[in-house]
Amino acid sequence: MSVDNIRIIMLNTSHPGNIGAAARVMKNMGLKHLYLVQPKRFPDPEATAMASGADDLLTRAIVCGSLEEALEGCHLVLGSTARERKIQHEFIDARQAAQQAMTEAGNHQVALVFGRERTGMTNEEIGLCHKLINVPTNPQYSSLNVASAIQIVTYELMMTAHLSRKELSESIQPVDYAVSDAMEGFYRHLEKTLIEIDFLNPEQSPQLMPRLRQLYNRSRLKQEELNILRGILTQTQKSIRHKQN
Fold this sequence. Notes:
By secondary structure, the protein is an alpha/beta fold. The protein is built from eleven helices and seven strands. Helix content is 49%, strand content 13%. A seven-stranded parallel beta sheet has the order 3-2-1-6-4-7-5. β1, α1 and β2 (33-37) form a beta-alpha-beta unit. The longest helix has 22 residues, at 223-244. The chain is elongated.
């Protein structure tokens, strides 16, 4: 099975050495697509030195201005984090993440997102993920270097690649899920409609949209289902404007 449709995304990386180390482990495990969201220093000689022969991945790395930009075209988004959140996401381990990623990568683009060295991912970035990857660590020393986290997850991807397609298809069936940027368009449409029907006041209920995001991310809408919901929202807006006139 191929990892060609899997991209590794690193958020606001502070130390260029971590970028180089990540590129090295990616090349070890056969991954080719590295996305960097607002790295502090890149390109940088320290990144090149740590890449140790994986310079080609650094040369091809795509630098983005936001996580949303880095996720364009992705149907499955898995974020790696050890932080607990008030809004609960579904957590899976690295092996489960690899199996799901490899199965869906046969037909769609998949993103594996890794947060900042010190602070991880923001709640807003968590909201863009369908599931979260948790790597168990020593409770007394739980801090895991971002390049090490990437190595663990990509190792599991390589191990999963050796499984037969039949073994994977029995556990996870590929589905035509809605792409990430289409979902973002839906969330904007949903928020605007909820405001128009006086169901949502963003200042009074700032947690409503994050909770709705989490609900729909957990459900993972198919493109056909998303089209139906967008149609309902559009018709709702038309009805409101007709009554206003």
